[in-house]
Amino acid sequence: MTRSTSAFCTIVPPHLLEQLARHADPEVHRPAQYTLEVDAGHRTRRHVLTTRPASAAAEGVAPQATAADHPERTVYDAHHEQSLPGDKVRGEGAQASGDQAVNHAYDGLGATFDLYLKAYGRHSIDGKGLPLNASVHYGKGYNNAFWNGEQMVFGDGDGRIFHDFTGSVDVIGHELTHGVTQHSANLVYLGQSGALNESISDVFGSVIKQYALRQTVDQADWLIGANLLAPGVHGQALRSMKAPGTAYDDPKLGKDPQPATMAGYVHTWQDNGGVHINSGIPNHAFYLAATAIGGHSWEKAGLIWYLALTGGKLTPIADFAAFARLTATVAKEKFGDGAEHRAVVDAWTKVGVRITGASAAVPQQSGPALDEPSPHG
Q1: What is the reported pTM?
Q2: pLDDT of residue 45
């Protein structure tokens, strides 16, 4: 068999860490340099794993889990080392730990499982009851959290720029959603398909937070990682879906580079073609669609995005236009040619992605729009 082609996915993008790594203050640049080195090693190892054919038995892959209506969570302590998973410190149903990072990770895994099961009938991230494993206290001053294709891993942050990465449920939901994408459309982590991969994780990270807090779309903050930035950092979060490009503006971090529309699309070969930057465009489209529809984001807008991702029609190399058309088609099939469909088409049009063909039932607005953006914009 051939393994899934899931990429090594982190919540803090390389461009932001590279900015910190250039800072003169050793307390700022050393943790960033360390994090970049660790992440580079993981990317290399993940590339080898995802391109090497192997049998499940030879690779020691666990048997396929069976579907269940409750999560099977295990949290490990890496003890500030890089060996995974570490020592088991809390299993499913066990009492809370005296370590808040352990409890936050456990609760975040559960919140993600609950959203996918109760809103969409999905049994864990693979749809078949996959156990959810996480390691906390990874590395020393490690400024990131990641999904490695098999489990979640959380750093404690350096305390100067970033707090503990278990403290934001949307970060946990974001990373686990990379697993949902891995087990469904398996979007290639490059260019626009890679930006869609990142955006879908932001979308459901935000939806999971809203679901856990029982917020309506007008009550939500639409921020990703709102609890990550340490005091003194000029910013609200890592990303803003409501207003991409405004999440932070800090002498150490630089300015949030995300565009909200195709007019600002960033053409770059860095970060796999700007996957963490250009994801602001589909992020904003979801925000516009969800707020136009109203109510709870997971009920209609989230359902449309989920069905587009998991319905079997989204190809691994889909660009923004392909995904936009599919969301419009799903909206029409699920809710008819009414307010929900119009909200989806209008949202994509406002960010500059024009939906053509039978899926487009409302007049297209003028402005910068692309019928078929190339894989790199």
Answers
A1: 0.89
A2: 67
